[in-house]
Amino acid sequence: MEIYFFILFATLAVTSAIAMITTKDTVNSALFLVLNLISVAGIFLLLKAQFLAVVQVLVYGGAIMVLFLFVIMLLNLGSEEHLLSRFSVKYVLAFFLGVIVLSQLLYAIASVTGTLPDLSPQMEQVGTVEALGDELFTTYMLPVLVTAILLTAAVVGGILLAQRKFSGK
Amino acid sequence: MIELDWYLGLSAILFTIGVIGVLTRKNAIVIFMCAELMLNSVNLTLVSFSAQLGDVHGQILVFFSLCVAAAEAAVGLAIIIAIYRNHLSVDVSRIHLLRW
Fold first, then answer.
1. Rounded to a whole number, what is the distance in Å from the CA of B100 to chain A's nearest CA?
2. Which residues contact A82 (CB under 8 A, 6 or more apart)?
3. pLDDT digits (tens, 9 = 90+) for B60-97
4. Domain A2-119 has CATH 2.40.30.10
5. Ranges of each domain in chain A
6. Contact call for A60 and B67, based on CB within 8 A
7. Whole-angstrom Cα distance, residue B70 to residue B76?
8. CB-based contact, A44 to chain B, within 8 Å
9. What backbone torsions phi and psi does residue B27 show, to the nearest 5 degrees?
């Protein structure tokens, strides 16, 4: 079961990554990247890194991709009627069907060679929020604070770069 | 017994797709998204090593990598908006002010 899910998520990730770089429309490309990030979050879940899977969906799939989509819409790079004509339900259905079929085929191949993702038994405790937070707020206290400064500097720099005129003049 | 290879192979494939995207695409935003894809595949490598070794430090590195990716996305998209104001385009083949 675990290996089936691994192959499903892996196929989804690779297919959506290829679709991301081959599609012409920027909005479609961003949406395929969201799919790719969510399937990688599923693989994190298979690796029993629960906290990072949740953070991946929240930060990458949520915050960063909303930022990307916002900039794409702001610059008006993808024309809407173009998007609607390409983004048909039939194509989405065909895409998911293809992914499922391909993953089942690879599952059948992999079951012959007998490959099982084997995790460390300690991973049940290591991947939790408790273990990560314990380490982050004791050993890595200074890097966490530096990261906070980095994020603040990035936000200030982003606002300064993106605003039309510097108000200090 | 330990099939680390599958996760590393997937990570390598995703990284390669990201490299191909950076090399072939001309839209600056798509190039940025490919860079995010590459960062994400390296995160996958770190998490899989951390899971095989039962060590928490790999995941902490992924946590910081996520923070840097968020900061990079914010600043990079601001730069893209500034370039778009000056050139009315995000096509990297047309932005050649600092190029011969």
1. 25
2. A25
3. 999 999 999 999 999 999 998 888 888 777 777 777 77
4. no
5. 2-119
6. no
7. 10
8. yes
9. -75, 125
